[in-house]
# Entry
Amino acid sequence: MGPGDSDISIKPRQEHQQKTQKPPMYKVLLHNDNFTTKLFVVEILVAVFHKSAADAQHLMWQVHQRGVGVAGVYPLEVAETKVKVVTGLAREHGFPLRLTLEKE
# Structure
């Protein structure tokens, strides 16, 4: 018998296959206030949320007009980190900018 001439048939086991679940996602909500400058909001949307300048400008106006807007959607740990970073930057610059999380 040579290689490949075996009487043994190798078949994959049909065990319970675990399906990996995607982690729950969270929206990072940006809230309007009367003190944080529009320029600062655009800057954090570009720097922290990796928006283009045009998208950041559009979202900033949306938040200004509607009172709230979605800066991004991330797994919980990423969303919490972004909120912490932006809140820290806002406080360093003397702004009361508020961000919250909402489960998607």
